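Input/output pair, single chain:
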Amino acid sequence: MSILSLPKITANGLVGLVTLGLVGVSFGLWSTTSEMKQMIAQLQNQIAFQPQPSIDSQPPNMEGTEIVSVTSKQIDATQLEASVSALSKTVASLSAEVASLKSQSNTKVISAPTETSFTKETIYLGSTTTQNREWTETGLEVGINSAQYPNGVTAKLEAGTSIIGGEVWVRLKNKSTGAVIAASEISNNSSSITWKTSPGFKLHPGGYTYVLEARSSSGEVGNISGARIIVER
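Output:
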């Protein structure tokens, strides 16, 4: 039986084999490393191009939402308080105006007629009787202020009187000062009611009370059916 003889391997050949093996191993490692690098690069690319979640897509911050809601309610409450305050001031102002108007409506204001508008005014005194032989106040009186009338006006006394036997007289007197207005005297001796008008006279400057005086020359009943003051231009 023959024994196969192995070729002799020299030291250089052994080194070559080892070197060749190392080269193979190195190539395998390099190949594996290269594949890993490619895989890592692909993963990095996928990560880079993967869409990031936007701020809007993030779950809401409930704490922040509550803060915004509370702040909004506080602002609404402040605006409401301001509106109520403004309305209160408006109501107070309107109430004051209404009170002022009511006060003015309770005060009678007599304005002076203008020069062009005034024509004639009749002031009624009333009716009465007298049996006094002397001039006596009848109680028929009225307050007149000359400032209520334009310049140039005159006043007249008109009266409807009657008497049976004798003569009845009437006139005006400034009760405030006691001054008699002689120009206003009217007399009548007829038993039927007769209306007569006195000559014109000037009202006393200012505001005074004028009273009707009457007398009966015979002491008989003198009737004053009506008396009035006419103010005209």
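The radius of gyration is 63 Å. DSSP finds two helices and eight strands in the chain.
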